[in-house]
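Q: Hi! First time doing this. I have a protein sequence and I read that you can turn it into a structure. Is that right? Here it is:
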Amino acid sequence: MKAQPADRAALFLMCITVVLWGFSWIAMKHLSDLIGPFDLVMTRYALAFVILFLILLATRQSLKFPPFWLTVGTAVFQTTAFQCLCQLALISGGAGHVVMLAYMMPFWVVLFAWLLLGERPMRRHVLAFVLAGVGLVAIIAPWQEMGSLHGSLLAVGGGMSWGLGVVLTKIMFQRHKVPVLNLTTWQMFLGALFTLPVVLLFPQQAIVWKADLFWGMAYMAIMASALGWWLWLSVVQRVSATVAGMSSLGVPVVTVILAWLLLAERPTSVELLGVALIMAGLVVINLPSGRKVKKA
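A: Yes, that's right. Below is the predicted 3D structure, encoded as structure tokens:
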């Protein structure tokens, strides 16, 4: 198997995705008083599907459903389970930092990519893994009050689901020629469909119809879901699952910084150290391998 070279375009797309998804956590926090968590997940995916479907029609691209089982598997684990398990972790009474446990997901990507794709981590991957891992622990601060064990396990389960979903997506791109926009569209459809039973099973607060709700949902549907997922799948298509997964650790970094700037949630010195370590890990994981791939 040939190693995938560093892709500057993929790195640029990943940076945009990280910013979009980092800000989405700020938006979700603001929307938490206006709409139930599962209503939010289902609505953002449904609106994103409508937008992307119209784009497919307008550009006359294929509407054919992607390879069935891999598409469904990705939707179950990455699109639906991650979001719903994180929301359940919050409902179960866990503190806000419990959600950060979900960002162990890149480490699960490394594990599943090794087991299912044979992407054995190189030395620089291990170094990046250690740096980012220590940084993530500093941000999570497990020595502080972490809320219920139940909530923590749900958050970790969300991270595992994301990791498996990333690897299933990579397998699809390796085995099939799938247009990214087409795949993103159907992921949004399945995400909304699979979240519907959760919406019906769990009672939620009444929706507060006000301008902030419409603006917030517009961001979540258009920027975080439609655009964000399209960019994310483009990244997964271009680089290894290991690099894509580790790069997504930029999301909690951006979230911490934005919460500081927009919500006056000043990070502690330990959290700032964690941010610095994660950023160092991201630099290491995206460095060129230095190995020249021989042409066949």
